[in-house]
Amino acid sequence: MSATKASKLYILDTNVLLHDPKCLYEFKEQDVTIPMTVLEELDDIKDRKKNVAQEARYAIRSIDSILSKATNSEQITKGVRIILPGKDRDIKLGCLSIFPDHELTVRTGFLPIEHNKDNKIINCALHLQSTFPHRQVVLVTKDINMRLKALGAGLKKVEDYRTDQLVSDVELLPEGHHYLDTPFWEGVDKVESYQRDGKAYHRVARTLLPNTFLNEYIYDSTQDFAARTVAIDPESVTLLDLGYQHLMNQSAWGIHPINIQQAFAMQSLLDPDLDFTIFLGSAGSGKTLIALACALEMVIEQGRYNKIIVTRSTPPVAEDIGFLPGTEEEKMTPWMSAISDNLEAMHEQDERPQSSVKYALEKANIQFKSLNFIRGRSIQNAVVLIDESQNLTPQQLKTIITRCGKGTKMVCLGNLAQIDSNYLTPLTSGLTYIAERFKDFEGSASVHFQGVFRSRLAEFAEENL
Are 402 and 422 a contacting pair, CB within 8 Å? Predict the structure, then answer.
């Protein structure tokens, strides 16, 4: 390796490159090496009909853009300088190299490599650790079991990739609403109130709400005051007066909020000034019901949008929706049962519930889409519901959100306690990432739901299991 002995040497697993294809630029002045086995895995993934195929292709292009500066194969093995383009000048980082781990011979301490690519990568790290005893060799992987195996095999340093982790604890995530123990107006000495477009606004001193952020909902113990932060400057905070009882009396497609968090969520969805909403909460807290009811209200009753597009992440959908006969919607139907269940719940008191559900599906033009086919689109005049978004990486959610065209509202729904992905945790989930990233965006609101309303059995299970 061409870098100084003092610098670290990071060995990247395939899942790190898939999780963040731009990760090569995140190791600063430290050196990065990619085993040949990882390139083979990327090559295998890039042509599959999988949700990560695009990430694989992006990662390959990133590697190529750096290594294309090499003049011969020996330079690629030794390392090519990573250059990060800057506004004023380019920034020189560490070196990127490809290690030919296929040339390694089995020796004492190595793991068996037959049909096991993870072991090949671990053996590569063990070899580099023994070859460069004065350098800190670090294997970076998002596979927990691989980290344990590597440590057990004698590798001194193994890490998860956490560069895109914005918070150290999910408890630090913004809840989207702030409760005041004392009546809000008792603490206000000076206020500037005014009307605009039929709405009431109050400008108060910043010291009253020093930690508030854009579109955070504020309420107090009186069950009278409720507002949303709409502007912040060094001296003051401007609140949109919503009224507690007015929020609780909202209705969308016959559904009324059960608690104030559901009321905040409903207001954020129905407000035309907000383009993006994030709903976090436990199973049974009403996320999907509120989102679907508001979407039906805005499409059918108000005519603000032309259709509802529903997509979600599940392991089978993330890979392929199959080659059996049927349209995309028909193949996606089994994975969209949460939507069907909530539609049936909304119409269970109707004289003909099945006819009402069919009417809603047709009239609202509800489309079930695979994540594979969201890519590359520009979605116009639609409400997009992204269900189970806790199973998506930050890069995948970015890909979906950037599909949002003119006149489209997006809603991310998720429960960080129900992550199914092998390589994601509540801290590295794309849902956590966007909840923190969009905290200061004027067109976004985040609401953390509280309570479980399915049944006393579901509530007990959520609290005690």
Answer: no
Strand order in the sheet with 226-232: 177-180, 217-220, 226-232, 236-241, 199-205, 192-196
Listed in sequence order, the residues at least 6 apart from 418 whose beta carbon sits closer than 8 Å to its beta carbon are 283, 388, 390
Query: How far is the C-alpha of 320 from the C-alpha of 322, rounded, in Å?
Result: 5
Alpha carbon distance, N-terminus to C-terminus of the chain = 51
If you average pLDDT over every residue of the chain, what do you get? 85
- CA 380, 386, 388 angle in degrees (round to 5)? 170
Cβ atoms of 260 and 244 closer than 8 Å: yes
Give me the helix-helix angle, 144-152 and 117-131, nearest 10°.
40
DSSP state of 252: B
Q: Is residue 192 within 8 Å of residue 419, measured between CB atoms?
A: no
Strands 137-140 and 157-159: parallel
Give the single-character DSSP code of 4.
-
The whole-angstrom separation of Cα 429 and Cα 164 is: 10
Return the axis-axis angle of helices 53-67 and 36-46, rounded to nearest 10°: 130
Residue among 75, 65, 165, 112 nearest 424 (CA): 165
Q: What is the pLDDT of residues 351-393, one digit of tens each?
A: 787 777 788 878 888 888 777 667 667 788 999 999 889 988 8
Residue (of 161, 431, 397) closest to 279 by Cα position: 431
d(CA 120, CA 306): 52
**C-beta separation of 176 from 447 below 8 A:** yes
pLDDT digits (tens, 9 = 90+) for 417-429: 888 877 788 888 8
Non-local CB neighbours of 416 within 8 Å, separated by 6+ positions? 170, 280, 390, 426, 429, 431, 432
pTM: 0.72
